[in-house]
What we know:
heterodimer; A: Cytochrome Bc1 Complex, Chain D, domain 2; 5 helices; about 0% strand; B: Rossmann fold; 3 domains; disordered N terminus
Amino acid sequence: MxxxxxxxxxxxxxxxxxxxxxxxxxxxxxxxxxxxxxxWQCHGYQGQGGVAGPVLQRTQLPYEALNxxxxxxxxxxxxxxxxxxxxxxxxxxxAYLQSIPAPADPKTIKLLNx
Amino acid sequence: MSExxxxxxxxxxxxxxxxxxxxxxxxxxxxxxxxxxxxRQVPSAxxxxxxxxxxxxxxPGEINRLGGKPGSDFMVDVMKTLDFKYTPSNCASSxxxxxxxxxxxxENKAPEYLSCMHEESGVGMAHGYFKITGKPLxxxxxxxxxxxxxxxxxxxxxxxxxxxxxxxxxxxxAATRPPGVPTFHSAQDINAIVRDYTKWxxxxxxxxxxxxxxxxxxxxxxxxxxxxxxxxxxAGLQQEPIAAGKNLYIPKFTMPSPPAGEMGAVxxxxxxxxxxxxxxxxxxRAARTPKGVGLLVELAELLQCSVVDQGNRMNFPxxxxxxxxxxxxxxxxxxxxxxxxxxxxxxxxxxxNGVHGIGINGTRAKATAKLISxxxxxxxxxxxxxxxxxxxxxxxxxPADAEATLPALIExxxxxxxxxxxxxxxxxxxxAKKVREDIRARELxxxxxxxxxxxxxxxxxxMELYAQIKDLDWxxxxxxxxxxxxxxxxxxxxKHHHWLGRSGGYGVGYGAPASVGAALANRDLGRFSxxxxxxxxxxxxxxxxxTAAKHKIPMLSIMHxxxxxxxxxxxxxxxxxxxxxxxxxxGDDGPVGTMIQNPDVEYHKLAESMGWWAxxxxxxxxxxxxxxxxxxxxxxxxQPALLNVWTQPR
Lengths: 114, 650
């Protein structure tokens, strides 16, 4: 139990850290950077994801984790180095993704309940 | 090259010979006969037709300049026995004689000539038509340049295991053919350019050989695995009159029975499936006919096992509690592949991550999983084109037609089921129902993202459409534009004609003509056709829109207009990032050479110019539903309609 509490506390601290970085970003600029750097190509203009890339809007990943992934990924997504995508742009993109409103509950969307 | 050319002038004897040949009746068994019904028996000698009686008893009219019945009239007689309903073709001099015979001597019926703007459209229409009817069409092409135009569509049909009968006109006799253009358009062996991706080809040099070639070619095309055949037709043979005294005959066609799996292997497979803890069936082109869907459901329910439908046909109802995405194979101890185009890709993965400049392989299935393959494609032996994919070792290999093998496999499974196994299988089924509900909830949640976005989300577009067609007898005739597979994930698909699969060879340009061909077939069956038409695909040969309007083929086409060849957008971006350099967009929204913008193509105006009702561009999701309602009313009146919808990329 004690161990669980420690892990939970650590996770909250990490989220707090990532929130700080996220707070540094500008969502408006992030939307522009998201489009300018081609993120939309696989993830959609609102980071909604699809067959080509996972959902990014309101990602649960802390900023640092997203940054590490973008820089170091060896999966299907190609890495974006700082030369291509600056830390500043990435912070803005993170802010943009967090700013996208949550979707409506699918049960309330008539067309999704034919 | 020709049949023995008549040396003397026109005479009554030769005229009567030709007329007698015209009396040969259709001798074709229906596709249904191949699915269990006994083949129709046709007598070898039939009573004379009205035409024949008139020729025998009436006074001959003015004898034609040719001096007798043209060879191409006999060719029409042969074609009529094979019951082609249509021939979508682009006109050309090398088959002018046959063309003339079809529309005048043959009265432009069975087959009816459909005017196409491009040979690729003719083949693509035949491709889509077959997927609805199970019956092949014949298309005629100019022997060299026309066949060259048709090649990509033929490759798609080959990879998609679809029969198309291609007739290529060719003027073979260098001593007599017209010089200049017709000689540019002649070749020693026109079939050479498609030989690698047709099941068979031939160049008959006499009319009697032609009759045999047509019937043989039809039979080969219609024996699973189905495939296109190409027949080179000499212009001289078409044009010259039938020689006096020739006693031509038309061979009777009998529908071949499909090759079924050997019973020993079938029993081994049944034993393996029954005793497995988590068997998974993966189906690709398993359901050749509507009957195949029912057989697969019966087998899956007997075993209560997951079924992955890879989507090259509508194999399995997508809302069934046993329907699963490909990830289901990860936990399988037995995987049975039915007509898979790529078994390696089912049990393995490939990540395009640029490692070593290429990518890395991985595994999707357990190393201990037992593999069973039933596939008629193993009976095809071609070398050059790599549609056979990577080699995958399996534990039971049946080079046989899956649909034809399923009845025996179902009976063998029933024989193997003990009370213990029945109990375990029933419990597996109950667990599967819960999993299915979870999958559905996840799909709906994913669809709700970007619901009000502009450009319009592909999920929203698909559901706006589905809401208005779901109560009709609808058929999604093409969905080549990649819309994140929303129709397959969200629409209820339980009929064979709800989903026709993809192009086969992934040659872009299939969607538009195949959808028109399928809509033609659906028109005759009273069904409502809808296509999700991607922008890049349409622009390869948009003239097929005119063909649809010209021949009054109603269909609703919703443009998935993402303003790009989007797969290539991602490819170039990926290459740039692997190489650690920004991608040059050149003023567009994506890499140079991959975007269809600046200027934007006004697809609604393009369609309107060719006789369609059209509207667009629609960028606001709130405007889409009313526009679809309008378009559906137009389609119900018999006219094709297109909506140009600006969409999210995928």
